[in-house]
Amino acid sequence: MDCYLPGKDRSEGVDAAKRLGNATFDLAKTATGKISSLITDRASGRRGGDEG
Length: 52
What we know:
This protein is mainly alpha-helical. 67% of the residues lie in helices and 0% in strands. The longest helix has 35 residues, at 10-44. The radius of gyration is 21 Å and the shape is rod-shaped. The chain starts with 9 loop residues before the first helix and ends in an 8-residue tail after the last helix. The relative contact order is 0.07.
């Protein structure tokens, strides 16, 4: 099945998909880094306010 949109260059759609993919990948890397930091902080006991 060909999903060609009349009046649009196919490369525009490919470029848009690449930009969206790159943005999504960047967000995933950021989230992974945050989760990793939280796990490291918990494992080393550096979280403040947990001690009663």
